[in-house]
Amino acid sequence: MTDHAPLKRFIFLLLGEFSQLPFSCAVETLRHANRFSDYVVYDWALAGIGGEFVTASNSIEIKLDFGLEDTKRNDVIIVCGGLNIRKHTTQPILNWLRKEARKGTQIGSICTATYVLAKAGLLDGKRSTIHWENLDSFEEEFPEVDLQKTVFTMDGNRFTAAGGVSPIDLMLSIISKDMSQDAANWVADQMIYNSARTEKDGQRLSIPTRIGVRHPKLANVIKMMEENIEEPISPSLLAQEVGMSTRQLERLFRRYLDRSPKRYYMELRLQKARNLLMQTDMSVINVALACGFTSPSHFSKCYRSQYDTTPYRERGSQAGEK
Q1: Rounded Cα gap, residues 55 and 16, in angstroms
Q2: pLDDT tens profile 114-139
Q3: Which listed CATH number (3.30.70.660, 3.40.50.880, 3.40.50.1820, 3.90.79.10) goes with 8-190?
Q4: CB neighbour list of residue 172: distance below 8 Å, 6 or more residues apart
Q5: Where are the domains of the chain?
Q6: What is the DSSP letter of 96?
Q7: What are phi and psi of 14, to 5 degrees?
Q8: Residue 83 burial class via C-beta count within 10 angstroms: exposed 0-12, middle 13-18, buried 19 and up
Q9: The pLDDT value given to residue 92
């Protein structure tokens, strides 16, 4: 390779319990981009609190290059999150990111670290995404962020990737802009990655694939349920929307999902409630309202039936872990 200054240096800010898969996907994509060129296009360094070591969520310890130091021109910061993101969103981290943002530094996030950028106020009005498991709690806490359910987003000098293998898609998009589409295609081939996705692609499997049933009317009803958690729609109206009788809808759910529409809807609402209890500081009453329960006692009864504990105990156990 010839002597050229790297086009960009990526500073990976590794938070405690970060998820190693998305981090590795990002680094490996950059490594292959360098192989395509006759010089080092991208460089990277690992930063973190203390500047010595950080432990990933899989218990692997990673050696850091430095702590929270000033970045250089053309540096790009990528914050990498994982488990217990609220716990690892510390004031020094927020202060450093805000300082770097004031300098005009390009800053992005991987997996749950979108929470950190939002907490620092760096995503207000920006299109952003986060791992699907954290979408509900994030939306409740940061209504000012233009939250998407896509694999990654790029909006001005901010970008976010949902986690898992989505950083490959993000980096391929960056490589295609910085280098060429041919370079991005070559890198994808090297990684045996033949389904590169765009900013418009969703994170999760389609509803028919997810439930293992390819019935368009059933998929449409489930989609309506998922989009109307706070104000649930009655089974009769759901049936009407897809041109069926309530009895036909009942038979459809029994046949393919072995439960009634009402039971399936309740499970969706309780799953969202559990996510909010575990990932936010919302009061139990507000969680109940956000999930379509107007009576706290009814919410508690349904929650206990599903999870064998009360919402208050669930909240208490999570507080204890942190």
Answers
A1: 6
A2: 999 999 999 999 999 999 999 999 99
A3: 3.40.50.880
A4: 29, 184, 187, 188, 193, 196
A5: 8-190, 207-321
A6: H
A7: -95, 115
A8: middle
A9: 97
**pLDDT band, residue 321 (cuts 50/70/90):** very low
Question: pLDDT digits over 289-302, tens only?
Answer: 999 999 999 999 99
Q: How long is the chain? A: 322
DSSP 3-state of 65: coil
User: Under 8 Å CB-to-CB from 99, ≥6 apart: which residues?
Assistant: none
Q: What does the block give as tokens for 308?
A: 């064998």
| Total Cβ atoms within 10 A of residue 49 | 18
Amino acid letter for position 28: E
Homologous superfamily of the 207-321 domain (CATH): Homeodomain-like (1.10.10.60)
Question: pLDDT digits over 179-226, tens only?
Answer: 999 999 999 999 999 888 999 888 887 787 777 878 999 999 999 999
Estimate the crossing angle of helix 296-307 against helix 261-279, to 10 degrees.
100
Q: Residue holding tokens 């006759």?
A: 38
Q: What is the DSSP-derived secondary structure letter of residue 18?
A: B
DSSP 180-227: -HHHHHHHHHHTT------TTSBSSPPHHHHHT---HHHHHHHHHHHH
- Supply 256's token pair: 């393919």
pLDDT greater than 80 at residue 5: no
Q: Whose CA is closest to 152, among 255, 240, 264, 22? A: 22
pLDDT at 34: 95
- List the one residue out of 23, 27, 33, 78 whose CA is nearest residue 55: 23
Whether the predicted pLDDT of 7 surpasses 50: yes
